[in-house]
Amino acid sequence: MQETKMPGNKIYPYLISVGFVFVMTLLGELVKKKLEPTNIVMFYLLAVVIVAIRWGQWPAIMTAVLSVLAFDFFLVPPYLTLNVHDFEYLFTFGAFLAVGLIVSTLTSKVRAQIIQRQTEKLHSALLNSISHDLKTPLVSITGALSALLDNASKLNEQQKNELLETAKGESERLDRIVNNILDMARTESGVLRIAKKPCDLRDFIGTCLEQLKDKIGSRNIKINISKDMPEVNVDFPFMLKAFLNVIDNALKYSLDGSAIEIGASCINGKARIFVRDYGYGILKEDLGRIFNKFYRVQHAENVLGTGLGLSISKNIIEAHGGHISAESIFGKGATFIIELPLERK
Predict the structure, then answer these.
(1) Which residue range forms the structural domain that includes residue 109?
(2) 1-32, pLDDT tens digit by residue?
(3) Same domain for 211 and 316?
(4) Is 302 in a helix, a strand, or coil?
(5) Phi/psi class of residue 36: alpha, beta or left (left: φ > 0; alpha: ψ in -120 to 50)?
């Protein structure tokens, strides 16, 4: 269970409280001729419980106080005044306010306990995932080096080279995992400092493909960048990481020999870049979660990775004021679309 936050808007839960009281008052107006006022109190109590569960104690307390005032002003005779002629209603107000405060406090405590337990479970799952991803290459490296040390005299040159290649490959994989974890920590800590400079997209994409040449091999990479494509202002090293993760993702989740398409154009004052593969595709239920930390699609059992790459890319792109999304037809590949703002001249 994740607590809902409105970025930069702490007043939002209190506006919701006012809205709930308004709605419950309208309901009370509709039924006040058929129900006793003391029964209508239950509407307001329901609002207090909902707000307490969803937004916490203080918005719920505000809901309780506003509910008493609205109930008295609109639904208790004499109407449209806070005067009360019947002592019974004063007791109702006091009892409702006390119950509302107690319910809001207890509900908020239960909510906090649930959030804490869910957070602990999430942290445990993340630690298990990281531990597994780190342990796998370490075991391979240890095994390869142990075999070399224990059986050096019995191994021929080809076998030694194969073990060394295994250790080297797993060391590089371990380095990528550690770097991904560090990148995720930086992008989520709020200390990511973007230093933008004009960049030619053709040069940028060329650098990406050069760094991925070992993974690309003989695969066909089709590039289609509009001739009138202007330069984009980006932090080259950070944006390079973002694009490397997206293109690497396309390579990993598509069949060897299949093409990868990379295109760019200028649309509505934005640079629109796409990376398309013709691989497995992404299930509809996965599309909304592939940019979450440590999330991996359901058919990814044979694909190595931590599930951090796309999340890091998203954070970097959004830090540039951009946006990344994905489209897919399962079984026919996936397309990642990146939009970056262009400087107005």
Answers:
(1) 12-118
(2) 334 443 445 788 889 989 999 999 998 888 88
(3) yes
(4) coil
(5) beta
